[in-house]
Design brief:
With 268 residues, this protein is an alpha+beta fold. It folds into 2 domains: 141 residues, Fructose-1,6-Bisphosphatase, Chain A, domain 1, CATH 3.30.540.10; 107 residues, 3-Layer(aba) Sandwich (D-Maltodextrin-Binding Protein, domain 2), CATH 3.40.190.80. Helix content is 35%, strand content 29%. The chain contains 7 helices and 15 strands. The strands form 3 sheets. Strands 4-3-5-6-7-8-9-10 form an 8-stranded mixed sheet, with helices on both faces. Strands 12-11-13-15-14 form a 5-stranded mixed sheet, with helices on both faces. It has a two-stranded antiparallel sheet with strand order 1-2. Strand 7 and strand 8 form a beta hairpin. The longest helix has 26 residues. The protein is globular.
């Protein structure tokens, strides 16, 4: 195990727990939060998002000052180490501000655009999903290993959507999934649903357009649990752009990918 990565992996888990505790405190006082609109009425941000990201950035800068940091709320700070942290302080802000528990803190570390560490903290459930490249994935310390017997037909599939995707694409995907005997769920947090894939709670997950901070931690988790992921264009400027996200266990990946392609969810 790479010593640099091992240090960062321990740090990431501690940081996710600290950031999650701060976010949970805000969640319990959410009626006092000022909520702002970003790109549309369903795209919101609060002081909780900004303060949690500020905490994360401060801790990373103190512990690993040569590392880069990309966060949803404060953008990209280039580093010199070759490592870049990719964080979403609160994934599922709409759920958060409306009092739903389906939100999480997502922290990933990339090495030359590849996610090598992924930690997702779900404070309301007291769950920490953690993975390091080559080291496997765990949920609260218990190893995660995906079962190839889980399929679209005998499991649930997570579906993500946003205002950046035309409704017809999402509708076609859901219709196609149900036509082959599957069923779907949407929690409001793509990162959480990716963690659910790694834990075997979902057969797979697909969203036509997501950003790196939404998916890279979850991708690391799914891969280390034995699942498969559609490559995300996280190199260079691609790290700042959105792209399709698809991940599933070994028994559902090909079927979900084919379904997404048929539903025109991976193409314009």
């Amino acid at each position: 195990m790479n010593a640099d990565l091992a240090d960062r992996f321990r740090f990431a888990q501690d940081l996710a727990e600290e950031a999650g505790a701060l976010a949970l405190d805000y969640f319990r006082r959410r009626k006092d939060l000022t909520v702002e609109i970003k790109g549309g009425l369903q795209d919101v941000v609060s002081i909780a998002d900004r303060d949690v990201e500020t905490l994360i950035r401060r801790r990373i800068a103190a512990a690993f000052p040569e590392d880069g940091i990309l966060g949803e709320e404060q953008g990209l700070l280039d580093g010199r180490s070759g490592y870049t942290w990719v964080v979403d302080p609160i994934d599922g802000t709409s759920a958060f501000v409306h009092g739903h528990k389906n939100w999480c803190v997502s922290i990933a570390l990339t090495d030359d655009s590849e996610p090598v560490i992924g930690v997702i903290r779900v404070p309301c459930d007291d769950e920490t999903y953690a993975a390091q490249r080559g080291g496997g994935a765990t949920l609260n310390g218990t190893p995660l290993t995906l079962d190839g017997a889980l399929t679209l037909q005998n499991g649930l599939t997570g579906i993500g959507a946003s205002q950046s995707v035309v409704p017809e694409k999402v509708g076609a995907l859901i219709s196609g999934l149900m036509a082959v005997g599957g069923n779907y769920i949407r929690t409001g947090s793509g990162a959480q649903m990716l963690a659910f894939v790694a834990a075997g709670r979902l057969a797979g997950f697909h969203e036509p357009s997501m950003h790196a901070w939404d998916c890279l931690a979850g991708y690391c988790l799914v891969a280390e649990a034995g699942g498969l992921c559609l490559p995300f264009p996280a190199k260079g400027e691609g790290l700042l752009n959105s792209g399709p996200v698809l991940a599933a266990g070994p028994g559902a990946f090909e079927a979900l990918r084919d379904l997404a392609e048929t539903s025109i969810c991976l193409t314009d």
